[in-house]
Amino acid sequence: MKPIHFFPLSSWKYVEDLNKGKEPDQALKSARSTWVGNDFVRGEIEDSYYQLCFEHADPLDEDFEELSKTIFNPLIGCEEKIKNE
Question: What is the maximal distance between C-alpha atoms in the chain?
Answer without folding.
Answer: 46
